[in-house]
Design brief:
Layout (H helix, E strand, L loop, with lengths): L2 H7 L15 H11 L1 H21 L5 E12 L28 E13 L6 H67 L5 H36 L26 H6 L2 H21 L5 E13 L18 E11 L5 H69 L5 H36 L3 H7 L2
Antiparallel strand pairs: 1-2, 2-3, 3-4
């Protein structure tokens, strides 16, 4: 079970998915884990692998084969060898020296019980292969859960970023409208040239275009989250919670080796190596004799007699001759050694390849973690600087507007100041979300979103 699954089952993500009310980040992640088909596929693969263990363990049980047969056939028999095949049926009894189309009834019933008392560890090795397959499936499910949860959290943050951009764009449109009306009044009073009115209309059109683009981005982001939640086409509202605030700094992450060893991707690759090794052990125990204790009882009936005569019309319709037998059968496939050696070499090469992939996964995750740390550090520094940028932009816009009204400034100065203010508002709102996004990247690189979701859900 992955860290995220435990996080969900412990009750931290307990609110039901409800589109009638704004979704929290925790609800969005929980809904994606429950609804996205890729997660269900992984869980069913785990169940399938678990059933495979029971299948492997069934080889320890005795085998019982039952037979019932009735036929109507001729009774001609010949001397001579016939190599094993599946086309010509065999006939028991003496050769009569005649070739006749006379036919009689034949019948048979029987049961054969076989049990392998010992196998030099082959069955145990096959069970271990099945268990390794289940562990690999569980690890793969953990990777899928991490990917889906990360995608849902990222889509949620993207929606919030788009909404903040829409809010800033709406404010820009309102300021552009106020400026357009003010410039229009000055132009009408012939205090300003008509070109400034055209410039004011252009600035408002630009602001409205930016608003349309921001609303489009918000709609696309909601569609992405709706796809993960299985509610594509539904209107999704999100509750930002603490995500618009600057998160508190957390303690430094634990030892790199511990974090990487417990990452779902690393656990999955490690389980793949374990599965290959289990197959190698099974192959090592395959070149041994197979011992089977067997017991059988059966009965046959026939309408043919040894002197060539036949019985009545229903003679042989039912079994009337009984037999039983007990024995030990030993089989040894002596010429299988070359193929077993070749299969062993195949698995050995697979083991080396999977080990290389394991080392690559460790290296890639270490790089991702360092990049996420650097991104988080930079995002925090930016978030600390954007309030200064926003305050200065507001002051600049107010001063430019006042200078313009006092006929000391130009329309171009006011337009530049308003664009600067809009960008500062967007940067300031997105700076805090970028810190949360960097924290999400850190949690994904560490392989566990539990602490991130808990921090966001406070």
């Amino acid at each position: 079970m992955s860290h995220l699954t435990r996080f969900v089952r412990l009750g931290i993500l307990v609110c039901p998915l409800a589109l009638s009310a704004p979704l929290s980040l925790n609800q969005a992640v929980e809904g994606a884990l429950k609804k996205y088909p890729a997660v269900r596929v992984s869980l069913e693969q785990v169940s399938s692998a678990a059933a495979g263990i029971n299948l492997a363990r069934a080889s320890y049980l005795p085998r019982a084969d039952l037979l019932g047969q009735i036929n109507r056939a001729t009774r001609n028999n010949v001397f001579g060898l016939l190599l094993p095949q599946s086309v010509l049926p065999s006939i028991s009894g003496p050769v009569l020296g005649a070739n006749s189309l006379t036919n009689v009834w034949g019948s048979a019933v029987g049961v054969l019980v076989s049990w392998e008392p010992f196998d030099f560890g082959l069955r145990k090795a096959n069970v271990q292969v099945a268990e390794a397959e289940r562990q690999r499936a569980q690890a793969a499910a953990g990777v899928t859960e991490l990917e889906v949860a990360t995608a849902a959290a990222d889509a949620f943050l993207t929606i919030l970023a788009a909404q903040e951009t829409v809010r800033a764009a709406q404010a820009s449109v309102e300021r552009a409208g106020i400026l357009e009306r003010a410039v229009g009044a000055l132009v009408k009073a012939e205090l300003r040239p008509g070109a400034e009115a055209a410039r004011a209309r252009a600035e408002r059109a630009v602001a409205e275009t930016q608003l349309i683009q921001a609303e489009q981005a918000a709609t696309v982001a909601r569609a992405s989250l709706g796809q993960l939640l299985g509610v594509a086409g539904s209107e999704i509202a999100v509750a930002p919670g603490r995500l618009l605030e600057l998160p508190l700094e957390q303690d430094k992450a634990g030892a790199l080796s511990y974090l990487l060893a417990n990452h779902p991707v690393v656990r999955e690759q490690s389980s793949v190596i374990d599965e290959v090794k289990a197959r190698e052990r099974a192959l090592d125990r395959s070149y041994f004799p197979r011992f089977n204790l067997q017991g059988t009882t059966y009965a046959r009936g026939t309408g043919a007699r040894t002197d060539g005569a036949t019985g009545g019309p229903f003679a042989g319709f039912g079994p009337n001759i009984q037999n039983w037998a007990l024995g030990l059968t030993v089989t040894f496939l002596a010429l299988d050694l070359p193929s077993l050696r070749a299969r062993r070499q195949v698995e050995a090469h697979r083991e080396r390849a999977e080990t290389a992939r394991y080392e690559k996964a460790l290296q890639d995750l270490a790089g991702q973690l360092e990049k996420a740390r650097a991104t988080l550090d930079g995002a925090r520094r930016v978030a600390q600087n954007t309030p200064v940028q926003l305050e200065a932009a507001r002051a600049t816009e107010q001063q430019a507007t006042a200078r313009y009204k006092a006929a000391l400034g130009t329309m171009l100065e006011v337009a530049d100041a308003e664009r600067l203010l809009t960008q500062a508002e967007i940067d300031d709102s997105l700076a805090r979300l970028n810190v949360w996004r960097a924290l999400l990247a850190m949690a994904a690189a560490q392989g566990d979103l539990g602490a991130f979701l808990q921090q966001a859900g406070r």
